[in-house]
Amino acid sequence: MRLGRVVGRVWSSAKTDQFEGVKFLLIQPVDAQGAAAGRSLVAVDAVGAGAGETVYWCRGREASYAMLPSEVGTDAAVVGIVDSVTTTGSG
Amino acid sequence: MRLGRVVGRVWSSAKTDQFEGVKFLLIQPVDAQGAAAGRSLVAVDAVGAGAGETVYWCRGREASYAMLPSEVGTDAAVVGIVDSVTTTGSG
Amino acid sequence: MRLGRVVGRVWSSAKTDQFEGVKFLLIQPVDAQGAAAGRSLVAVDAVGAGAGETVYWCRGREASYAMLPSEVGTDAAVVGIVDSVTTTGSG
Amino acid sequence: MRLGRVVGRVWSSAKTDQFEGVKFLLIQPVDAQGAAAGRSLVAVDAVGAGAGETVYWCRGREASYAMLPSEVGTDAAVVGIVDSVTTTGSG
Amino acid sequence: MRLGRVVGRVWSSAKTDQFEGVKFLLIQPVDAQGAAAGRSLVAVDAVGAGAGETVYWCRGREASYAMLPSEVGTDAAVVGIVDSVTTTGSG
Fold it and tell me: Are B15 and C81 in contact (CB under 8 A)?
């Protein structure tokens, strides 16, 4: 998974059937200090994340598993909200 | 998924059988502001997207799911057309 | 899929059994204008592509599907030869 | 797999059910000499790795296999701890 | 697949059960001319490759297939040793 921040929403009416009723989040990947690190992406929301929250997201087939029992063929899903990140001195 | 813009079409007569009758779109990945962000790719069209439209596309095995019940073994598919993107101040 | 150009062949005698009789192409990824865009890769040939031809190639598990009914566990396959690419003004 | 160093932990209470009881490590990818090489990621721990240890981690669906018989749909898992890396002169 | 050169070995005693008895190679990805191209990775050896040899390696789920009938959930495997690479003038 990668860390990310919820920076927006994506709205879409013309889409494949599997995405009916799905919430799309715009995610900015971030590093452990919260700085932007990489390109934004569109992920489905599996945990009820809100604007500005730091989350971790999953890609590939595992993203779809997070949506079960709904069958949503997505390649990216927000699967958790971060409480805190603790880093060690050796980083 | 990533955001992208439909910037062209790819035409091909010699191809694997699975791609018969499939429409190939040339996609330019873009960021939330619509600026180009990354290399263009060829995606199959699962939603009837047209030239210049902003879309979101999916990669990996999930791209093939978007084409069901047709069995199209693709690693990239346009799965939705974007109505709008709303971004928050914390982005 | 990505666009690419066939720039060579890779010859190999020591390989896993699944690759017996398979043709390996050296592919240079290119953009819509034909300029090199990214690192070369080795792909199996599913369509009979020749030197210098512009093709599109698929990665991941879908690459293996292109070789069916042969069971070739490859992560990259040339799945079509490009006739032409048409780009729109908004690109 | 890639080499990495355990540089922290990620704590999360709101997450998908599959992640209950799972330990999340913050991993900094490193090269063979131990220098940082790429962006940090969040991986589940399949081997009991501790802070500062050099590990190798797996991504994609194979990451989930490392957690069996637990069904954890993750796209990254630490699957081993490195004792040593030996490099040859031709590198 | 990508071309690579075997530049070392990785030794590990604490690892998931699936990796018992598996040989880990440190691979430096290279281009068709043998120059380094990208970050090193750890791949399981499916063909008996030795130090300094030029190989091609596979990633993703297909890497695991190369190890059958052993069930090794790896995301990277060396699947062949390169005899030669021939490049065309149009590259």
Answer: yes
Domain boundaries along the sequence of chain C: 2-81
Q: Is the ipTM of this complex over 0.90?
A: yes
From residue E63, alpha-carbon distances to B39, C30, D60, D67, E44 in Å are 26, 26, 11, 18, 8
Contact D2 E41 (CB under 8 A): yes
CB contact under 8 A, E61 and D59: no
Chain segment B36-63, per-residue pLDDT in tens:
999 999 999 999 999 999 999 999 989 9
Contact D57, D26 (CB under 8 A): no
* pLDDT category of residue E89 using cuts at 50, 70 and 90: low
**D63 and A61: CB-CB below 8 Å?**
no
Is B18 strand, coil or helix?
Answer: helix
Q: Does E54 contact chain D (CB < 8 Å)?
A: no
> What SS3 class is residue D21?
coil
Question: Residue C89: its pLDDT value, please?
Answer: 60
What pLDDT does residue A83 have?
97
Q: Does B26 touch chain A (CB under 8 A)?
A: no
List the subunits that have 3+ CB pairs under 8 angstroms with D.
A, E
CA dist B3 to A25, A71, D21, Å? Answer: 12, 22, 34
CATH homologous superfamily of C2-81 equals EutN/Ccml (2.40.50.220)
Give the mean model confidence (pLDDT) for residues D55-77. 93
Asked if C46 reaches chain B (Cβ–Cβ under 8 Å), the answer is yes
C1 touches chain B (CB under 8 A): yes
Touching check for E59 and chain C: CB below 8 Å?
A: yes
pLDDT at D91: 43
Read off the pLDDT of each residue in D25-46 and give the average, rounded to a whole number.
97
Q: Which residues of B touch A29 (CB under 8 A)?
A: none
Instruction: Classify B89 as helix, strand or coil.
Output: coil
**Ranges assigned E (strand) in chain D:** 2-11, 14-15, 24-29, 41-45, 54-59, 76-81, 84-87
Mean pLDDT value of segment D43-58:
97
Q: Do A38 and D43 touch (CB under 8 A)?
A: no
